């Protein structure tokens, strides 16, 4: 079995020094190439509906397409500072639960905290945009590599969904916010690993289960929190798609993983753990602290201990853990992944609703797509 060192390059998952040592060294890069190591698979078995659940999902996707240009109220005026201040107030203030004594933030006034809040939002939405492009690329790869016709059909609708997601996040950043961030190094490592893997199910596991599982939870939070109507509507649309995407992952892998040996399952468990750690690491938002002129080591350690932060971070795993459980990943090989999720402090979500059960609750109601009504 691999050690933490083999899997994530450090022994202690909470080793702050090691986490912050991973940074994006090419911030001006415009093109980034990754070998995808996969064979394109044709199937000559065209019988539609052999996998009825996937077929249903495909039919649903076809009638759930919204248009990022025409269905969203882009004429909404967004006062970013006002929105950020309101959101901070709703959660008790920017520094409500961190003790800044003895740090450079001790002397911050409302002005610096507001600037920090604005940068955080720019950073957060930039990372979502980059993650969405990861999904676009991964789903295109799944169209090529999955051997089942019903899955190829469904994945092709997801490619279109992801194009819309990249498009609307990019447009929101460009026209309503005040700056972009390059991709976070931890997120980039993860996306590269997913694309790099030659096995078709690893694309699903990394993207549909891990990255999109986290995105669904994070979008849910933001959707609930934000008072800005355009962003709220945008997230509503995106989440209705994401829930379907995660369900696609669970449905496809459930069938495939039922047949795998212990050794093969262990590789999937290790991959899920690595992905979970990378995603947690990126939420330290080290680039924002850098921009504010604060040593990320000072700030990130402090933020890591803040109770609200800890709650938010662990809630991000509220979709991932039940879905991993449903796939049989938690307890194979002597409860390997259960132990790791316990180490990460997220095992308490194991009995929450999995996305195969709940995805329909995210579906858009009749008439909810503006252009269709
Ligand atoms: Fe997406
Ligand atoms: Fe997605």
Q: Calculate the terminal CA-CA distance, rounded to whole Å.
A: 55 Å
Q: Are any ligands bound, and if so which?
A: fe (ii) ion
CATH architecture: Up-down Bundle
Q: Report the helical percentage.
A: 55-70%
**Biggest β-sheet: count, sense, barrel?**
none
What is the number of domains? 1
Structural class: mainly alpha
What string, H for helix and E for strand, traces the elements in order?
HHHHHHHHHHHHHHHH
Low-confidence stretches: none
Backbone shape: globular
Overall strand count: 0
Summed up, the helix count is 16
**Average pLDDT for all residues:** 93
CATH class category name: Mainly Alpha
- Using the coordinates shown, work out and report the CATH topology: Ferritin
Strand content: under 5%
Estimated radius of gyration:
20 Å
Considering the protein shown, what is the CATH homologous superfamily?
Ferritin, core subunit, four-helix bundle
């Amino acid at each position: 079995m691999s050690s933490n060192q083999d899997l994530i390059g450090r022994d202690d998952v909470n080793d702050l020094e090691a986490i912050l040592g991973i940074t994006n060294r090419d911030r001006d890069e415009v093109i980034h190439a990754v070998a995808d190591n996969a064979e394109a698979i044709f199937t000559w078995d065209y019988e539609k509906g052999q996998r009825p659940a996937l077929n249903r999902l495909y039919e649903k996707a076809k009638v759930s397409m919204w248009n990022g240009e025409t269905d969203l109220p882009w004429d909404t005026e967004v006062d970013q500072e006002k929105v950020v201040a309101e959101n901070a107030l709703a959660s008790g203030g920017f520094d409500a639960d961190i003790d800044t004594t003895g740090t450079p933030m001790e002397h911050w006034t409302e002005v610096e905290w507001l600037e920090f809040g604005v940068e955080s939002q720019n950073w957060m939405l930039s990372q979502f945009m980059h993650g969405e492009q990861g999904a676009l690329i991964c789903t295109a790869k799944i169209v090529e590599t999955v051997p089942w016709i019903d899955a190829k059909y469904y994945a092709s609708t997801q490619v279109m969904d992801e194009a819309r997601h990249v498009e609307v996040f990019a447009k929101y950043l460009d026209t309503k916010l005040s700056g972009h961030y390059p991709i976070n190094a931890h997120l980039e490592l993860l996306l590269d690993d997913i694309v790099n893997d030659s096995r078709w199910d690893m694309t699903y596991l990394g993207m549909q289960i891990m990255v999109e599982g986290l995105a669904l939870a994070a979008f849910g939070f933001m959707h609930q929190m934000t008072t800005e109507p355009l962003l709220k509507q945008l997230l509503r649309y995106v989440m209705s798609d994401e829930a379907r995407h995660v369900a696609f992952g669970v449905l496809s892998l459930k069938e495939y993983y039922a047949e795998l040996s212990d050794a093969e399952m262990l590789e999937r468990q290790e991959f899920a753990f690595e992905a979970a750690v990378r995603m947690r690491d990126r939420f330290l938002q080290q680039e924002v602290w850098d921009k504010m002129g604060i040593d990320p080591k000072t700030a990130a350690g402090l933020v890591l201990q803040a109770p609200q932060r800890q709650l938010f971070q662990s809630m991000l795993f509220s979709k991932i853990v039940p879905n991993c459980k449903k796939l049989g990943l938690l307890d194979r090989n002597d409860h390997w992944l259960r132990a790791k999720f316990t180490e990460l402090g997220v095992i308490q979500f194991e009995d929450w609703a999995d996305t195969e059960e709940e995805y329909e609750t995210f579906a858009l109601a009749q008439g909810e797509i503006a252009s269709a009504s």
